[in-house]
Amino acid sequence: MSHIKALKCRECGTEFPPIKIYACEKCFGPLDAVYDLQSIELTHTSFKNRRRTLWRYEELLPLSKKTKVVDLGAGFTTLHRCNNLAEKIGVKKLYVKDDTVNPTGSFKDRPATVAVSKALEFGYKAVGCPSTGNLAAATAAHASKARLPCYVFVPSNTEPNKILQAAIYGAKIIAVNGTYDEANRLAAQAADEYDWALVNINLRSYYVEGSKTLSFEICEQLVWRAPENIVIPMGSGALLCAISRGLAQFRDLDLIGETKTRIIGAQPQGCSPISSAFKSKMDDVIPVESPNTIAKSLAIGDPGDGIYALKTIRESGGFADYATDEEIIEGIKLLAKTEGIFTEPAGGVTIAVLKKLVESGQIPRDEEVVCCITGSGFKSSDTLLKTMPKPVEIMPSIEELRRII
Amino acid sequence: MGKVTITLYGAIAKTAGEKTTSIEAPTLKEAIDALIAKYGESFKGRVYDQNDRLLRFLNIYINGKDIRFLNNLNTELKDNDAISLIPAVGGG
To answer: Is B22 helix (H, G, I), strand (E, B) or coil?
Structure first.
């Protein structure tokens, strides 16, 4: 199955065997999965009869035992050609990678399926995560399938639908009176005290591998090539780094040609540590103490992969920008009204930033863009209801209908 | 000057050989110095880089508050403060 051979420190390069370890023991730097690419023989036809989930790329995922895979059907989501939105924004060719249709309604099903499977393989008796909401639901759903108890740490102001969803799947909800970063810190302390697999903390090196399948799918759906530009929402920055790593792996396996994809990061203005660092040409990412944005899934003030996302964007010749709450709402409505896709605020951030960069000329109008829409609008209905007018109510008579049409 | 409790998590606890300790120090910097004196040079390498800056992937909290939102190493300590040293909190 997997061809993982080591975990390598992104900072000092020290390699460790792929065991239960989540930070470099020398410098505490993050560890990345390294695969023996020489031993992988994949061609375009290898994928012909494979299942239509992200597990079709099993050689490039860090599981050793097929029997441990917990698959609710995450991945292989639609890549929509979006001519209506392209026309509105004024760009030649636009695609939306629609990850709202994943089993629990967000891209987080990708890392969750990999991490919960890995937790089973390692023999953990419980799983969990700190989360802004989407990962909580994704982990909880996969945990219920895996018959594992699940503990999720969420800020107490998390959108009610996201908490409801995780609770319905049977997770124990730990609502932390504080920011996401405080919930994250508490979860890290819990990881030390309890033998739980907290998927984005002590299984993080394996967990992020699920996210890179987004780029595998985009390349496959574009008939085995990388796009010219890709716009990605950023919370911790991990998704952006994973997408970039996925493109590089497909290139190294000769599944696509040389990649010149501009990687573009999008954040809400009320929590934009990575985009702000990019715009002010800094190398350091200054954490935000109190995020204030309607894009709650991106409200991570101290992004774990912030400096790496910044580096990845710069090396690709890409950009980072942010959007105000008003622009985010406008982005949500624009995507829904032109393409019939209902996104949570994170997707509104992506569309708003795309629009901004096309208008400013940073994304050339004659190029192709893929936008990642990472979560369903139904998860944020509380926030979005406030932005919509109340429906007009009428009596059931044709005269009344004529009055309002 | 404060008598504080320090809790170490993950790999840094392994280096120290214990998880919690109590120390009396006026500032966080001096509390860390006291830990280095107690646990030795190998502990120093788990806290500072070669330029004597705090390791990028070591987060320090005082009473749950990230020291980057306080006065970093110069944060003054008071009695009963709880200090946590936690490596590489990924999240997200």
So the answer is: strand
What is the domain-level CATH number for residue A249? 3.40.50.1100
Q: Domain total for chain A?
A: 1
Q: Which residues pair with B16 in a beta bridge?
A: none
Of A161, A207, A160, A200, the closest CA to residue A181 belongs to: A200
CATH number at B46 reads 3.10.20.30
The CA distance from A164 to the nearest CA of chain B, in Å, is 20
A296 touches chain B (CB under 8 A): no
Q: Tell me whether residue A73 is in a domain.
A: no
Per-residue pLDDT tens for A274-300?
Answer: 999 999 999 999 999 999 999 999 999
A29 contact B CB<8A: yes
What is the separation of C-alpha A238 from the centre of its chain, rounded to a whole number of angstroms?
8
Instruction: Tell how far CA A377 is from the center of its chain.
Output: 15
Read off the pLDDT of residues B58-70 as tens digits, 9 standing for 90 and up: 999 999 999 999 9
Query: Which candidate from B9, B66, B69 shows the least CB-CB separation from A192?
Result: B9
**Do residues A20 and A3 make contact, with C-beta atoms less than 8 angstroms apart?**
no
Sequence-distant (≥ 6) Cβ neighbours of residue B11 within 8 angstroms: A23, A25, A28, B46, B87
Helix A213-221 crosses helix A204-211 at what angle (to 10 degrees)? 20
Domain span at residue A310 reads 79-105+214-385
Residue A374 included in any domain: yes
Provide the residue range defining the domain that includes B80: 2-87
What pLDDT digit, counting tens, does each position of A93-133 carry? 999 999 999 999 999 999 999 999 999 999 999 999 999 99
Within 8 A of B68 by CB-CB distance, chain A residues are 287
A179 CB within 8 Å of a chain B CB: no
Per the structure, the count of domains in chain B is 1
DSSP designation for A398: H
Residue type, A287: P
Straight-line distance from the first to the last Cα atom of chain A, in angstroms, rounded to the nearest whole number: 60
User: Does the residue B92 lie in any domain?
Assistant: no
In a domain, A263, yes or no: yes
The gap from C-alpha A86 to its chain's centroid, in whole angstroms, comes to 23
Compute the distance between CA of residue B19 and CA of residue A108 in angstroms, rounded to an integer: 33
**Is A6 contained in some domain?**
no
Q: Which of A27, A189, A304 sits opposite B90 (nearest CB)?
A: A304
Report phi then psi at A259, rounded to 5: -100, 135
Long-range pairs of B45-53 with CB within 8 A, sequence gap ≥ 24: B46/A28, B46/B11, B46/B12, B46/B15, B47/B12, B47/B85, B49/A27
